[in-house]
Amino acid sequence: MSTNTFSVGKVASRCGVKVSTLHFYEQKGLIHSWRNKGNQRRYHKDVIRRVSVIKAAQKVGISLESIKEAFSTLPKSRTPNKQDWEKLSAMWQKDLDNRIDYLQKLRDSLTGCIGCGCLSLKTCPLYNPDDELSVQGPGPVILDRKELD
What we know:
By secondary structure, the chain is mainly alpha-helical. The protein has helices spanning about 10-15, 20-25, 45-60, 65-70, 80-110, 140-145, and strands spanning about 5, 35, 40-45. It is elongated.
């Protein structure tokens, strides 16, 4: 095996992910491999950086679809370098700021509720008797309202 190529097991070990995760990333078009003469997957060494970028982006809540979209802006789908990472992270900045704002509002609005065992259902922002809120849309409509401001 060339020192510039790695088996799927070696990449998984170096990146701290399962082999199935690499297969999943490959199915999603985030990383690429090829088959050697023995029909075994092989990866260029730069896939390690690409997987690291994927993991870092996922840790802060960036979707795989957004990661794939961002990777598609790179020349020849190459692995991001420092300058690329700055551009990619700038692309995600607004989304991350919105997520942070939402989570802070959620935290602040649920301070009296978390851990209470919902003994105060009349004032609980999550209480939805008889699914009355379904006409307003799916999900946690009360929490998604601008009223959390």
